[in-house]
Amino acid sequence: MKKLLMTLSFIATATLAMAVPAQRGIWKTVRLADGREVRVELKGDEFGHYWQAADGTGYVKKQGTDVYEIANKTMIAERAMELRKEANTKRMLAKAGQGQMKATIGGDHPAYTGTKKGLIILVEFADTKFKPGHDQALYDRIANEEGFTSNDGFVGSVKDYFRDQSEGQFTLDFDVVGPMTMPKGYAYYGANGYNGAIDLNVRSMVVEACQQADSQVNFADYDWDGDGAVDQVFILYAGRGEATGGDENTIWPHESQLGYGIKLDGVVINTYACSNEMRSDTQPEGIGVICHEFSHCMGLPDMYDTQYGGNFGMGVWDIMDSGSHLDNGFTPPSYTSYERMYCGWKQPIEITGDTVITDMKAIGEGGDTYIMYNQGNKNEYYLFENRQQTGWDSELYGSGLLVLHVDFNKSVWSYNMVNCTTNPYINDHQRCTIIHADNKDGSTSAADFAGDPFPYGSVNCITATTTPSTMLYNKNTDGTYYMDKSILNIARHNNGTVSFEVKKNENLKPEKPEGALFYESFNLCFGNGGNDNIWGGNGVGSGSFVSDNTGWVGSNKFGGNGCARFGSNLQNGNTTTPEFLINGSATLKFKAAPWIGDGVNLTVAVSGDNASIEHSTFTMTPNRWNDYSTTISGNGNIKVTFKTAKHRFFLDEVLVTPTDINGIEDIKTTATEYRNGHIYTIDGRYMGTDINKVGKGIYIVDGHKFVK
């Protein structure tokens, strides 16, 4: 007889649980105490869940009755957060005290490679048995058979899934035992706590199942690294699961720990996961939930908003979000580039400078992935992956280049609140989500999921001035909150590959025109206003001021759309150029425009050795750029000052040339004056090399603005 040791405190110790989110689209009609009926959709997860009507009102079943009452969603979210915090504290204590915690969420760990043993224990209840034919032999095939298919909808086994995500580096061989019969009915184990809180007695089911399985397996086989603790035990229980519409007394699939655990065969059993047999009364559950929960055992967090605050998270693109429910769980999506990197299966290729990526295959077909770091904070980065509707991704709603924005924080990961912002003291922004090509972050319809990858219509680039943009949460080394590179010319090809270009923003800085004494393009100002024909409003012209030339002085300097904005609603705009050398007379040209409703009079002055200016006052016409030219003179280093009599103004394309040079003209010119270089829109979209084929507008050609 194998020795059993169970700590007395495990039942009272509720440690961190992670669960699948409620399947979207689970609707039913509930009856209220006053007799009214309301149609509601399931929301939440293991820590807190409720049913929500179309008007946003939440409902939970009134204890001891069959009627529903209005739920306090704020209280549910706050209670769920407290449960997570309490659980995490106990979880860390268990880890420190017994060395039992296997895969710390988001923590460092060796790569998952080679062949590992997993255990699936089939469990049925005193009042709920497995469907006919749903026996050990079937679940052994679902877990282990390569290429497993069935008329129910299975298109692969659990082993197939993890083999494919690891590209053959990680193989799971499962022992499947049971079914083990619990002494009580399912409601004893799955009944919810108060107001939709966690199931009350799941851990007693896990312990009972392990005890019954002890005579059939050696639990030491499931200790992957020889540290005396089992890495994973999976319970597959008969009947429905609450996440996919089972009644309130069914168990919500989740991954958790027993606390201080039990000891069998000389090893501690602490980490477990569980999921259900049936998705509906007639359809079996696919492998999506099993793979989701098993992924938690390897340290992957939930990517959905675990506090139900409406954040997008990763949506159907990730098995750690609602992707586990794709195709009723039969075809869960591929692991993302982040998850493959975390597991040690695929390291992304770092993008460090200007590059062109071609023939990028789908991630599910072995394609490369790429990473672009925020040089000011290496915990923040973009990941690039090609998602195509093939293989495990065949049930996705769209295809193309998926761009992930990750801002890793170990504490937030450990709380399993990666994309939850309900408590800003813990987390104030989504930390592993996607950049939506269609810029629709809050929608979860099939059509909007299809608009997530790039390109989307004419949206084929991401720069500091596009929508969406290359925004960051942490300051970059250049002082801005944008990536120092732009992603351009994203294309999807008929053979399923994608391509894109990357260009460092500093390379958008033009060379000073030949013979020019001074030139400032403001091309590195990434904001809005000016060159996008927006001349005022909240948030306009508030980007970072980044100039080609160092030494600009003045108060209230901001970046517009490839131009600068000076002044505020309280302070008149005033700025002075860096010094430049002049010997005799020169021509000063610049573009200026007033802020809507502010002053239209602009004064220009020069200072320095024998400095003078021919015309010093200019009147700006609202709602458009105004081109100006005047003669200045001096002998030595001089500066030019621009100031307005009332509040704000925009400035662009400041150019000073000797009066005897005739080859430098206004920026508005003909295409024949340019070399056959690349043409970009002001927001960075590549338009080819033929200026005659582009429409009217402002472009950057060979580093200079061009108006057609």
Could you provide a short overview of the structure?
The chain is mainly β and 708 residues long. It has 9 helices and 34 strands.
Tell me what the structure shows:
The chain is mainly β. The chain has nine helices and 34 strands. Strands 21, 22, 23, 24, 25, 26, 27, 28, 29, 30 and 31 form an eleven-stranded antiparallel beta sheet that branches. Strands 1, 2, 8, 9, 10, 11 and 12 form a seven-stranded mixed beta sheet that branches. The protein has a five-stranded antiparallel beta sheet with strand order 3-4-5-6-7. Mean pLDDT is 86; it is low at 1-16, 96-101 and 662-676. The protein folds into three domains: 4-21 and 77-297, no CATH class; 341-506, no CATH class; 518-666, Jelly Rolls (Sandwich).
Pick out its properties.
mainly beta; 9 helices; eleven-stranded antiparallel sheet; seven-stranded mixed sheet; 708 residues; disordered N terminus; Jelly Rolls
Count up the helices. Answer: 9
Flag low-confidence runs.
Answer: 1-16, 96-101, 662-676
The proportion of residues forming helix, as a percent range, comes to 10-25%
Give the averaged pLDDT, no decimals. Answer: 86
Cα gyration radius (Å)? 31 Å
Amino-to-carboxy terminus distance: 88 Å
Number of domains: 3
Structure class: mainly beta
Task: Describe the main β-sheet briefly.
Answer: 11 strands, antiparallel
Shape: elongated
Strand portion: 25-35%
Q: Count of DSSP E strands?
A: 34
